[in-house]
Amino acid sequence: MIEKINIDPQVETIVMPENLRVGLVVAEHRKKCLNAGCPFDYAGLAFGQSPFHVPPPLESALCEHAGKGHYSAAEGIAELREAIAGFNKRNFKLEIDPARIVVGPGTKDLIFTIFTMISGHVIIPSPSWIGYAPQLELLGKHYHTFHLRPDCDFRIQPADLDQFLSSMTHEGKQHLLVLNNPNNPSGVVYSKEELGEIADVCRKNNTLVLADEIYALSTYEFENFTSMGLIYPEGTFITNGLSKDRSAGGYRLGSCILPEKADDKLAEDFTKIAATVYTNVSTPTQYAAIAAYEPSPEIDEYFAITREIHRMMGLFMSEEFNKIQGIKATTPQGAFYFYADFNLLTESLKKKGVMTSNQLGRSLISHPYHIAVVTGDAVMLRPEDYGARIAFVDYDGRQAFERYKKNPPKSKTAEIDFVRDNAPQMLKGIEYLKKYIDYVVS
Ligand SMILES: Cc1ncc(COP(=O)(O)O)c(C=O)c1O
User: Fold this and answer.
1) Is 415 helix (H, G, I), strand (E, B) or coil?
2) Tens-digit pLDDT profile for residues 46-98
3) What angle do CA 286, 115, 212 make, to 5 degrees?
4) Could you tell me which CATH number the domain at 9-52+299-441 has?
5) CATH topology for 58-294?
6) Which residues, judged by CB distance below 6 Å to any ligand atom, belong to the binding site of ligand 1?
7) What is the reported pLDDT for 261?
8) Cα–Cα nearest to 154, from 334, 339, 313
9) Could you tell me what percentage of the chain is helix, strand and coil, using 3-state DSSP and rounding each to the nearest 5?
10) 237 CA to middle of ligand 1, Å?
11) Is 104 helix (H, G, I), strand (E, B) or coil?
């Protein structure tokens, strides 16, 4: 008779991803507050989902291919891999043989496959996206948190990286550096020169790079974006997909470009894992995705409009945060996040019983402040480091898109008006944050 189902202890090492955990906490507070007649719902600065609609050519292609119920190639159908190669050439000047491209169910899964395959230790710069460390914990792999300096805007400093890597002494000494550019949570975008210096350090220290470039096309000055694949082709895995710049996170489709140095064996191993774990990405989604990668003036316009709206929202929000005494926010250059440092308020926070960064997140969401952000260990901060990831996507994206298309703002004042008209909930969030800080310092 089965009395209890025992779970493998490895599973106990991870917790529900923080953005989902915050979602549950928010739902709980919301219910309590709404029942008590509280006037403000909450400012959703935690969940990093694109607010925009799926580009129409992608949506109609999915309907068109809905009947394709057959299984398909584990590494992705050939037509899609060719379209992805063309897309990379047009947008990132990358000349990629489609044989080096593997398609997966979102980049999260592809990142998991890379972590599974590559031996050696992984280096995760912090603050970081919430996804990497739990995957490594689940796999039981060694990883090291590389804390970035606030005085350098949380950008990797090549000399610091060199020192960090040279001090590692594990057997084989192969490392894998996670390089998320544009960065979630800081919004930082690395220049070509910075990437060149980081690549030199990696070459010197036998370090591969996992270049998570999922936000590449949401770089506000897109002409300034350089893929690590151009700078360090022999050692870089590039992951990208439809989730962010084409607002199709739920489609679950991403791609990985294997390093130039990869031999056939690496590609075969990748495919072997894909075939073992998920067989193939949904076949209709793969056929539909071709429309999202082939040349399309409509999708190019979509990229241009959405990145402009992200830029206006991000700059406005980060400026507003910086106006609040005690908070220092990064200025985003891409993606839809910035990082807010609350450490100047350490003493006051402690006096109010907020002893850790995790507790900061909990106290911000509590009544009457209602601000949902991601803090603490989820972004790989030290417990006493009061910081938060701020996502600026809490608005009606379709409406903002249509309004922008009809009447794009032409001055700084018009941009501010655009944000005020389209993102009232985020503005309320700022007001509530000010109240929270007043309470903390009182
Ligand atoms: C930095 C970063 N990498 C990867 C992902 C995962 O994206 P996907 O939907 O392709 O799995 C996300 C999504 O939040 C992200 O922010």
Assistant:
1) helix
2) 888 999 999 999 999 999 999 999 999 999 999 999 999 999 999 999 999 99
3) 60
4) 3.90.1150.10
5) Aspartate Aminotransferase; domain 2 (3.40.640)
6) 48, 106-108, 129, 131, 180, 184, 212, 214, 241, 243, 249, 254
7) 77
8) 339
9) 50, 15, 40
10) 15
11) strand
pLDDT the model gives residue 33: 77
The owner of tokens 């090492």 is 13
Q: How far apart are CA 133 and CA 424, in angstroms?
A: 34
Strand ranges in 121-192 using DSSP code E only, listed in sequence order: 121-126, 143-147, 175-180
CA of 107 to the centre of ligand 1 (A): 6
356-379: pLDDT as tens digits: 999 999 899 888 888 999 988 888
Burial class (CB in 10 A: 0-12, 13-18, 19+), 167: exposed
Handedness of CA 330, 331, 332, 333 (dihedral sign): negative
Which ligand 1 atom sits nearest the alpha carbon of residue 49?
14
In terms of DSSP H, where are the helices of 171-296? 192-204, 228-231, 264-277, 283-293
Ligand 1 centroid from CA 435, angstroms: 32
Give the whole-angstrom CA distance, residue 417 versus residue 423: 10
Please state, in angstroms and rounded to a whole number, the distance separating the CA atoms of residues 136 and 178.
12
Write out residues in the chain with pLDDT < 70, as ranges. Answer: 17-20, 170-172
Ligand 1 atom nearest 111 alpha carbon: 4
Q: In the structure encoding, which two tokens stand for residue 90, read together?
A: 């047009």
Rounded Cα distance between 365 and 430, Å, is 13
Indicate the domain borders of the chain: 9-52+299-441, 58-294
DSSP 384-399: T--EEEEE---S-HHH
**E runs forming strands in 231-344:** 236-241, 254-257, 328-329, 337-341
Number of C-beta neighbours around residue 7 at 10 A: 8
Record the tokens describing residue 366, joined without a space.
Answer: 């509590």
Q: Is the separation of the CB atoms in 360 and 376 below 8 Å?
A: yes
Predicted TM-score of the model (pTM): 0.95
Report which ligand 1 atom has the smallest distance to the Cα of 107.
Answer: 10
